[in-house]
Amino acid sequence: MRLSIAETLVGGPYECELVVVVDVFRAWASAYAALDAGAKEVLLARDAEQALALRGDHPDWILVGERDGRMPAGFDFPNSPTIMLQQNLAARTVVLATDAGTPAVHAVENAKRVLLGSFIGAAAVVDVLENSPAPEVLLLAPGDRGEVRSLEDTMCAMFLKNAVEGYPNSYEALRKYLRNLPSASVFFDSARADAPEQDFDFCTDLDRFDFALDAVPDGQGVFRVERRCDAANAPQGGAA
Fold it and tell me: Model pTM?
């Protein structure tokens, strides 16, 4: 298996049989948290406009996400796993639209399989890759709005690649590095109630979940998030 890393969406379109879209702060953390809070399903919209259009047809659907780092008008909740865990989402459909993660999934819609990569499900993603017959895997770190390199996403992609290829990773040192990134400062800004400090802890809680997430096209222009259902390693569910 050959693993390669791509940073931002500027160099696309990216064509690969298996793609891991990496998003550390905070899209996939919010998706995991929504499922943990009981959501019936999580859908990934391309952008806020598509999410709002979906709500027009489904008024009971819950919109979660960000635009330029803030919750868009008409949305219910910001892109925050901490806030997701505070909700009762039992039997609800959650639509997630973010600045980088969800557009990146749509940008690789021709891939045979798309995985959502993050530290909180790292070991499960590595397990998928180690057991995949795909000859090539793309680790896509979309970065800031898909245009500017994001160190946390790139470092996570490198972490996953090292784990698959058998190179050592020092996560304790990496987590300290992540905490001091400019992109992490939002979590320590007392004026940002939409990005509590607990979000940083959640997003960097290595292997918090023991299952990976797939993004599966639903045929109607959005992707549905599914817990990995490979028979060799069925998801156990819940937080570790």
Answer: 0.92
